[in-house]
Amino acid sequence: MRLLAPLAAVSLIASASPASAQVDIDRAIRNWQALAQGAKSLADLTPQERVEVAEVDRLMRERRPDRANAADQCRKAEGRWSGGQPSELERRLIDLRCSQR
Q1: Could you report the per-residue pLDDT of 31-50, keeping only the tens digit for each?
Q2: Cα–Cα distance between 25 and 6 in angstroms, integer?
Q3: Which of 99, 62, 58 is nearest to 78 (CA)?
Q4: End-to-end CA gap in the chain
């Protein structure tokens, strides 16, 4: 499953622009994963590989859900549901429910 996200992100690179047609998708994925695992550093990559990895990383960050935002939205919705002025116990229950998102 974790491999599918980089594949999807890199496929977006390949279809994004004519310049991206020069991207070696397999290499970009391998380098991105190697950097994430600490097996490589940016100094180990060529300038072209750095561009590819930066694009994969950018796309992955865009696709990643904002956990704080989801939890905040949950708290607001739960607060409205409880009448807008939840008691201390209700606030704690809301925090517990929304921390799971």
Answers
A1: 999 988 999 998 999 999 99
A2: 10
A3: 99
A4: 19
Question: Same structural domain for residues 55 and 84?
Answer: no
Question: In terms of Cα–Cα distance, which of 24, 3, 4 is closest to 13?
Answer: 24
Domain co-membership, 9 together with 39: yes
Assess whether 32 and 54 both reside in one domain: yes
Please state, as a whole number, how many other Cβ atoms lie within 10 Å of the Cβ of residue 83. 9
**Domain count along the chain:** 2
Place of tokens 């859900």: 65
Q: Which amino acid is at 80?
A: R
Same domain? For 9 and 52 the reply is yes
Predicted TM-score (pTM) of the model is 0.47
Listed as ranges, residues in the chain with pLDDT below 50 are: 1-4, 7, 10, 12-21
Tokens of 15: 């279809």
Distances (CA, A) of 96 to 42, 69, 80: 40, 15, 16
